[in-house]
């Protein structure tokens, strides 16, 4: 702001002569000097650089509202901003689009574009993808921090049942919250393993017993162990359902559906055993019970709840549907082509094993996947040549999508580790800032008390400012994302 009698700044020209198309302005951004002409800048008059052309006639108040400093002798505007991002942003005046250089933080670049008042629509689509990915990472970090704070915080206004419900949910769903929660998670893992082992061991004929009708059945000891495991799974599921904050989302979750499929066959088979005999023949009941017992294999998927590696693998496969679809398409085309060729070439042999093209599909599948059972094989020379070409094509087709799938797995695994580290770092920063805020508050309160003692008892009733440990700037104001979250470096 120009002060009265200040000789550092000469009077700014106010005749408006510099508003023409030949106006030249000099901009210094972080030590990088650029010269612009009015005809280029006026293409986008709402941007900050275009406003510099018209600010000279508005005095120093108008100038310093747009820049950090101004040299009237050189007519040079100074900005304390990122010069690398600025070099990318000025492309909009010449090419009508902006490309973000590699190595620049997308969130920082977005903030720079907002400072220079350039709309995000000029950012190229490939660069918008990086920006959206970074936003998703920041939102995920904020969500994790908020979940941790929700677990740590206790709301005094909540009822006793709500607090108990939250405690049970944290106890069963978050093993990292306490030592007893980790013990429960380990026990649940062991029950899953024991139940799976019992299911397998129960099929060994030497360990089975014969009932009164002469039918083989599982050993009573194994049956008791199975009942105990089902009791644990049932209790665990019911407690988690009762304590769930969103019961509809809980019931429709994939892993919880797996839990139901692991528990339900036991109760259905128990019901059929005791009540089904009255409604249908005993043999039909036994077949239904045997079919339901096979469904117990679903409980092995419960291991994914306690294994981050299995969860990462599941996510990688979900992200690799396109690659898996291409693999299946390649194999389907190859199976159809080579089975038809194999059937045609083997028809001349009197002892051919290729009776039809649909029957040849099985041979093509096991050949292209390099399994090769040998139950169906070619006997002619052309048939053997066709088989050789088919398994070579199968090896190539299977190997093609493997690398993208592995990349998806590694990328997701590394991303989860980075997000966990960033969330912990954010919590540490919040604790540090909270401690500094408390120290500053205590110091100011001591100064206020000392001043109140001097001023009199009337002033000692002023309200004190409280500092909340759970206040998160990044969760309440988006503009603090860059300064608070370190993951966007």
TrEMBL record:
Regulatory alpha-subunit of the voltage-gated potassium (Kv) channel which, when coassembled with KCNB1 or KCNB2, can modulate their expression and their gating kinetics by acting on deactivation upon repolarization and inactivation during maintained depolarization. Accelerates inactivation but has relatively little effect on deactivation. Coexpression with KCNB1 or KCNB2 markedly slows inactivation. It is found in: Cell membrane. Residues 1-22, 440-461 are annotated as: Disordered. Residues 25-126 form the Potassium channel tetramerisation-type BTB domain. Keywords: Cell membrane, Ion channel, Ion transport, Membrane, Potassium, Potassium channel, Potassium transport, Transmembrane, Transmembrane helix, Transport, Voltage-gated channel. CDD domains: BTB_POZ_Kv5_KCNF1 (cd18381). The gene is Kcnf1. It is a multi-pass membrane protein. It comes from the Eukaryota. This is Voltage-gated potassium channel regulatory subunit KCNF1. SUPFAM superfamilies: POZ domain, Voltage-gated potassium channels. Residues 182-416 form the Ion transport domain. The chain crosses the membrane at residues 183-204, 248-270, 324-341, 385-406.
């Amino acid at each position: 702001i120009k002060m009265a009698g200040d000789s550092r700044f000469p009077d700014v020209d106010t005749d408006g002569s510099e508003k023409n198309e030949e106006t030249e302005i000099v901009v210094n951004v972080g030590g990088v000097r650029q010269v612009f002409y009015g005809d280029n800048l006026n293409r986008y008059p709402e941007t900050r650089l275009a406003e510099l052309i018209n600010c000279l006639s508005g005095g120093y108040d108008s100038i310093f509202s747009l820049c950090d400093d101004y040299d009237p002798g050189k007519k040079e505007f100074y900005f304390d901003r990122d010069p690398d991002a600025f070099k990318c942003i000025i492309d909009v005046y010449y090419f009508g689009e902006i490309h973000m250089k590699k190595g620049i933080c997308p969130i920082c670049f977005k903030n720079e574009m907002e400072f220079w008042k350039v709309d995000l629509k000029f950012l190229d689509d490939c660069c918008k993808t990086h920006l959206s990915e970074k936003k998703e990472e920041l939102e995920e970090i904020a969500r994790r921090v908020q979940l941790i704070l929700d677990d740590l915080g206790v709301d005094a206004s909540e009822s006793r049942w709500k607090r108990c419900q939250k405690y049970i949910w944290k106890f069963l769903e978050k093993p990292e919250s306490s030592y007893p929660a980790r013990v429960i998670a380990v026990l649940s893992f062991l029950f899953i393993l024991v139940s799976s082992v019992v299911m397998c061991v129960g099929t060994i004929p030497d360990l089975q017993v014969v009932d009164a009708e002469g039918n083989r059945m599982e050993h009573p000891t194994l049956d008791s162990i199975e009942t105990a495991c089902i009791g644990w799974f049932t209790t665990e599921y019911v407690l988690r359902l009762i304590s769930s904050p969103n019961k509809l989302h809980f019931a429709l979750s994939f892993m919880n559906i797996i839990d139901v499929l692991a528990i339900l066959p036991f109760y259905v088979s128990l019901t059929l055993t005791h009540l089904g005999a009255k409604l249908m023949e005993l043999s039909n009941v036994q077949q239904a019970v045997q079919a339901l017992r096979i469904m117990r294999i679903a409980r092995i998927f419960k291991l994914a709840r306690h294994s981050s590696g299995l969860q990462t693998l599941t996510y990688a496969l979900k992200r690799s549907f396109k690659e898996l679809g291409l693999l299946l398409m390649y194999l389907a085309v190859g199976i159809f082509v080579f089975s038809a060729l194999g059937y045609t070439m083997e028809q001349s042999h009197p002892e051919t094993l290729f009776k039809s093209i649909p029957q040849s599909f099985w041979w093509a599948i096991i050949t292209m996947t390099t399994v090769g059972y040998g139950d169906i094989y070619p006997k002619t020379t052309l048939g053997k040549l066709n088989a050789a070409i088919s398994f070579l094509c199968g090896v190539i087709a299977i190997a093609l999508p493997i690398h993208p799938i592995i990349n998806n797995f590694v990328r997701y695994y590394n991303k989860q580790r980075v997000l966990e580290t960033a969330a912990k770092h954010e919590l540490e920063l919040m604790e540090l800032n909270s401690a500094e805020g408390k120290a500053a508050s205590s110091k100011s309160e001591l100064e206020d008390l000392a001043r109140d003692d001097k001023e009199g008892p009337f002033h000692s009733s002023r309200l004190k400012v409280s500092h909340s440990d759970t206040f998160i700037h990044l969760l309440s104001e988006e503009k603090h994302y860059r300064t608070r979250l370190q993951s966007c470096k």
